[in-house]
Amino acid sequence: MRGRVTRVVRRLLRAPLFASVAVLTLALGIGANTAIFSVVRGVLLKPLPFDDPDTLVGVWHTAPGLGVPLLNQAPAFYLTYREEGRTFEDIGLWDTTAVAVTGAGEPERVSALVVTDGTLNVMRVQPVIGRRFNADDDSPRTPERVLLAHGYWERKFGSDPSVIGRQVTVDGTPREIIGVLPAGFKFLNADPQLVLPFRLNRAEVFVGNFSFQSVARLKPGATIAQANADIARMIPLVAQRFPMPPGFTRQMFDEVRLGPNVRPLALDVIGESARLLWVLLGTVGIVLLIACANVANLFLVRAEGRQQELAIHAALGAGSRRIA
92 with 184: CB under 8 angstroms? Predict the structure, then answer.
């Protein structure tokens, strides 16, 4: 085997231009495919870094009456779905923002995640010290509280475990620290330094304000189709439970023709980039095929020029396998 490889290498060295063109052509095709496939695997094929990610879904809506295929979530709908839903283990509302922090060294502005009390429960995220939010923390009638990201805890508090119970001032409001999230915690595309409770006041909620996003976990055995059917059942209940915003009537609500659009949570992370990445992967795959075809043509041309040599080998008794 080693002798055969040596002969092949020696023959290639006799034609350095041919060998260089063939190697470069294949290297470009294989390199491009490797690079794009690495991105596709990391973005599209790798599961979300949460427990049992296949049961996580994003809860959206459609509004054909407005020509909107993907409409965000609203507090009135979130509250109705959580109280009346039959297919979700739990559901959470979330949003991203930036806040000013004082009382923890130099004042600074940091990224923050605002969540309802069920959101971290849906993601099955457990703090490394302290606890996550509960229903009391999410009530406007209780003291303000906050969770710290692991990196923020290390940077601002030196990984001090006694930080639980201390206070920081967020946007001018003192908040009690109740927990520290695990290292590497990211919420979909967000990388928050602080996590705050939503603290919805039900008395102030009305039908509308589709400014937030929602995540839910399906019950064992429940499907996305069943979840969409369940959402469709609950949408009329929202208009019965909550008032319309000023200047908005029930007829206008009906004309929007609001519908469900529950989909795998991975789509909320990937967004529209999925289609582009698959197109790129297919394109570089075609490039590799063209590269292989070009190298095959080079070998055929080279073999055509060696007919006399191969004929001599055959005349001397070389078999077809040896000639090949």
Answer: no
Length of the chain: 324
The pLDDT tens digits of the residues spanning 210-233 come to: 999 999 999 999 999 999 999 999
Q: Report d(CA 272, CA 44) in Å as an integer.
A: 11
Cα distances from 85 to residues 61, 80, 120, 133, 200, in angstroms, run: 15, 8, 18, 21, 19
- Nearest CA to 97 out of 216, 174, 182, 194 is that of 194
Across residues 66-83, what is the average pLDDT? Answer: 93
- Identify the band that residue 20 occupies on the pLDDT scale cut at 50, 70 and 90: confident
> Which residue would you say has higher pLDDT here, 72 or 267?
72
Residues 74 and 68: their CA atoms lie apart, in Å, by 15
Reading the block at residue 28, the tokens are 């470009």
- Report the DSSP pairing between strands 213-218 and 88-102: antiparallel
pLDDT bin (cut points 50, 70, 90) of residue 1 is low
Distance, in Å, from the CA atom of 63 to the CA atom of 250, rounded to the nearest integer, reads 15
Tokens of 43: 């973005």
Predicted TM-score of the model (pTM): 0.73
Angstrom distances, CA of residue 162 to CA of 46, 167, 192, 270:
37, 12, 22, 38
Residue 194, judged by CB atoms within 10 A of its CB (0-12, 13-18, 19+), counts as buried
Strand partners, 88: 218
Mean pLDDT of the chain: 86
Q: Provide φ and ψ at 320, rounded to 5°.
A: -65, -35
